[in-house]
Prior knowledge:
Elements: H1 17-28, H2 31-36, H3 39-42, E1 43-46, E2 60-63, H4 65-76, H5 84-91, H6 100-105, H7 109-121, H8 129-136, H9 138-149
Antiparallel strand pairs: 1-2
Amino acid sequence: xxxxxxxxxxxxxxxxxxxxxxxxxxxxxxxxxxxxxxxxxxxxxxxxxxxxxxxxxxxxxxxxxxxxxxxxxxxxxxxxxxxxxxxxxxxxxxxxxxxxxxxxxxxxxxxxxxxxxxxxxxxxxxxxxxxxxxxxxxxxxxxxxxxxxxx
Length: 151
């Protein structure tokens, strides 16, 4: 399936499908990582202790270097969908309660982009969301579907 010509090269104004294709290859290279990673090694929780002065340090996730390379590859891939929440509302009206791994099973390229963007962006609003997505296999399922769609 050809990649939609959605992103535009900032210099030339032409569709940036070359960079998107390279980005997809880089992301799909993480499939073996997600297939074998222990979620509790990909994310370790720090904090959660009370200091001598009584202040409690809230727990927070610390992600492995390998996982952070995946996040970096996503942001370099040209796959980010800026209007991901609006598109999720349109494409998957019950997305807030839906099992996104099931949604991905038959998703088209655009929906995969939207779900991947949401899965990456959500950590900003909810500490540990990436950990849940690693544990549930969502990232693995997204990448496998992306690979199928772009072969």
